[in-house]
Amino acid sequence: MLDAPNPVDETLRQQALDRLELLDTPADPYLDTLTRLAHDLFGVTTALVTLVDRDRQWFKSRQGLDVAETPRSLSYCSHAVMQDEPLFIEDSHVDVRFAGTELALRNPGARFYAGWPLHDAEGVPLGTLCLADPKARQLSEREKSQLRDLAYLAEGYLQLQQNSQQLDDLRDALSREQRKGMLDALTQLWNRAGLLHFLPLEQAAAERSQLRLGLIYCDLDHFKRVNDTHGHDGGDHVLWESARRMSGAVRPQDVVTRNGGEEFVILTRVHDKQELLQIAERIRLAIASQPMQLEQAQLQQTASLGCALLGPDESSADALKRADQALYRAKHGGRNRTEFAPSPH
Fold this sequence. Notes:
Blueprint: H1 10-20, H2 29-42, E1 46-52, E2 56-63, E3 69-71, H3 76-83, E4 87-89, H4 102-105, E5 112-119, E6 125-133, H5 141-162, H6 165-173, H7 176-181, H8 192-208, E7 212-220, H9 223-249, E8 255-260, E9 263-270, H10 273-288, E10 292-293, E11 298-299, E12 303-309, H11 316-332, E13 338-340
InterPro entries: GAF, GAF-like_dom_sf, GGDEF_dom, Nucleotide_cyclase, Rev_trsase/Diguanyl_cyclase
Protein name: Diguanylate cyclase
Pfam families: GAF (PF01590), GGDEF (PF00990)
C-alpha cells in the first residue's frame, strides 16, 4: 500500500504537536461550529479537524463520523501534512497516487477528499481541516478558497488555544495517558472518571474565586424510545449532538461530563442560584430548540435537569445526590424542565 512517509522534521513536528496539549481533550464548541459550517457549506458527509499523531489521526472536531481516531497508515491527512500543502483527491478510484491502494480501498467514505494543513505559530504542520465524501466530486477554485479561509480560522484558533490558561491548568493536572482514560469516546466529553477528577479541583477553584460550585444533572428524555425507534446508531447520534449543544451552551471554564448512558453532569462556578438556573435553562433550550437531524428522520429531543449548589461543609457526593433528586422531580413533573435542590441547611 501507499504509506504516508514521515517528513524530514517529523521529530520536531511531533514535539510541536505534543506541546499543543490538545490530543485526547474534550470536543471544542468553537471548532465544532466551524466543522459544521464546512459540512453544510460543501455538502459533504464528513468534515474534520484532524491532528496527525505518531501512529494515528485523532479528530479534535468531527461531523459525520462516529469514531474518535483512525490509524495513521490509513490517513489521507498524513499525506497532506507530509507534503505540507493542500491535498485534493477528486476520485480515489482513479487517482494515480491512491487507486488500488489499501488506503483507498479501506476508506470508502472518502472517495473524495480535500485537506488543508493546519500549523502552529512556528509554521509546523500539525493536522488538517478536511472534507470527505463517498461520491467523487471536484472543488471549484472558489470552493478551494473557502476551504482555505476556514482552515485559516481553525489554525488561528488552535494557536490561541496553545496559550490559554485552561490548557495550562489541564497540562498541570493530567498527563496525556490520564486524559485518554477520562475521555468518553462517543461524545468526546469527560467521562465519570473525569467528573470525579475535576470535582475537587472545581470546588477549590470556586472557593478561591469566592464563588459557589454549581452541579447540574441532565438526562435526555425518553431516550430508550430513541434507541427502540431509530436504532443504536440513531441513539449514538443523539448523544453526540446533545453533547455538542450542551458544550456550546455553557462557558469555556465549565466542565461538561457524560456520567453514563444518557445522563450528563455539568460543573460550573456561579454566584448564586439564579445564575445556576440560567445556565441550566440555556442547556435545556439548546437541546430542545431545534430538531436533531438523523439519517432518515428529524427528532425533537428534550432533556430534564436537576441543579444544586454545593453547601458549606457538604461533600460533593451529597451535593450530587441532591442534584440527582432534583432531576428526578423534573422528570416526574412533566420532563423538559429544570428543578433546583434547596440547600440541606
